[in-house]
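Entry for SN-glycerol-3-phosphate complex. Fields follow.
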Amino acid sequence: MKFFIDTANLNDIREAQGLGILDGVTTNPSLMAKEGITGTDNILKHYVDICNIVEGDVSAEVNATDYEGMVREGEQLADLHPQIVVKLPMTKDGVRACKYFSDKGIKTNVTLVFSAGQAILAAKAGATYVSPFVGRLDDISTDGLNLIQEIREIYDNYGYETEILAASVRHTMHIVNCAKIGADVMTGPLSAILGLLKHPLTDIGLAQFIADYQKGNQ
Ligand code: G3P
């Protein structure tokens, strides 16, 4: 399973990249705003900064809601850097724009996906990635991981090449369960990724090893 980090925070991206386990980055307008990155020029520059830190795909989201606007904005984003993936919302215009970009060989990520039906449409439109939001479904008492499982089954039935990018991942068990189900990619915050490191027996065992090593060196 590929690991993407879901943030526009350059320090978090650098830290995950430094670990050597990062495969890409996803962002959205809310994550940009959270970092105080506003205004088109600043946002475009920030995408390039992110691409210069990581080696993998970097999803950059369009803000237009109409087909022509999405195509215009998506082309501008794709021209920024070869690592850019054009992120489009799951709407009628977004699906049309996805087909436009996939026909041109430009990578796409269809976002705000909350049902298996929407995921089928994204695959039919040739999306590179489909982003079902696990955490936001959990937030409304619906099993977000169940959606990942449904999409996995449907995509496998037909050999769809669209990669399932489990998004809105919030914690370590989301990551572990996405891996068990067979999501192609997960994207989550640095805290969820670093959470995978934690086990009290590792800490206790390491403290013991250090203590025993020091006995022999006193
Ligand atoms: O990848 C989608 C993500 O940014 C949404 O996450 O935690 O705001 O639901 P969250």
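NOTE: Residues 6, 26, 28, 31, 133, 135-136, 167-168, 170, 187 surround SN-glycerol-3-phosphate (CB under 6 Å).
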